[in-house]
Sequence to fold (197 residues):
Amino acid sequence: MRTPRPPLRSDVLAAVQKRNLEHRAHRAGWLRAAVLGANDGLVSTASLLIGIVAAGQDNLVITAGIAGITAGAMSMAVGEYVSVSSQTDIERADRTLEQEHQRIDSIGEELALASIYVERGLSEELARAVARELHAKDGLKAHLKDELGQNEATVARPLQAAVASSLSFIVGGVIPFLGVFATTLGGKAYAIIVYRS
Fold:
């Protein structure tokens, strides 16, 4: 005997929706940018400082470190912004293209959507019914999500990626920069390498 299913508007569903807020896919864009920024901050700042220390320029190491962190943070922000903006441009172009496809062949697009649902395991009859309902409500949204994989949680956010990358570069760069406060050049080199590790 099958366990009775609760109605769609129930406490059970509310609990599941609350749990679903724990998913992390919506963080993927800024988290990737932050990890790359921190890694670049560590590596490039440590490399710059080791070069300055190796050249025996004790009087320039703090200035070079600050300049390197500043330039790196700006570079990371601009690079991430441009990179993620190009992804946004592609998403917009796909949206426009999908709108055109639906305008010229709405029935074919509905069938394409139904075939996606059949591939996911629905019967053809149910898949056609789902596609028909979704097309009646918002066919474009259904295609963007189920055909192209676009949704609000994963949409590209250039400014968010730029800020995350820049700030994490600064944090990553400060770690090896702390080594410049050692008293000798050898101590500085050692501290920069140790802090970077």
About this structure: The longest helix spans residues 61-104. Residues 88 and 156 are 6 Å apart (CA to CA).
